[in-house]
Design goal:
The chain has about 130 residues and is α+β, with helices and mostly antiparallel strands. The chain has 5 helices and 4 strands; from the N terminus they run ααβαβαββα. The protein is globular and about 65 Å long.
């Protein structure tokens, strides 16, 4: 029995549509900066430059990035400009902060504004001096 060319075409068309809605994870990784930073405690803040709580956190993140330079990575990713990190990290709202240990394992996740004191406490709990 010969395969039905119409059925094969429909199956191939369906598979091509799936690739539009569910791109492989490797595409996300290629476009997203290296987060978590290899061998370093990392805090990534997924937000947007125009989101109000994100704007409130911006000066805190800038300050902590300088204070912890060389000891911990503080990374901001704008998910309105590039939504790939939102998919990669499966966030449900912004801002979302994710803390990774030196091995790159997620150890804490928070949704919403996070104060400087709380960020510092989390970093200290993870061994950052």
């Amino acid at each position: 029995m010969k395969p039905n060319r119409f059925k094969i075409a429909v199956i191939l068309y369906g598979l091509s549509l799936l690739s539009l809605f569910a791109p492989p994870a490797s595409l996300f990784a290629a476009a997203t900066p290296a987060v978590p930073v290899k061998g370093m405690v990392t805090m990534v803040d997924l937000g947007a430059k125009k989101c109000i709580p994100c704007k409130m956190m911006a000066p805190i993140l800038e300050k902590l990035e300088k204070v912890y330079a060389g000891r911990a990575a503080i990374v901001f990713l704008d998910v309105w400009e590039d939504p790939k990190p939102a998919h990669r990290f499966s966030i449900s709202g912004i801002p979302t902060q994710i803390f990774f240990d030196k091995r790159g394992k997620e150890v804490f996740r928070h949704l919403g504004f996070l104060s400087e004191e709380e960020i510092v406490r989390r970093l200290k709990d993870m061994g950052v001096k």
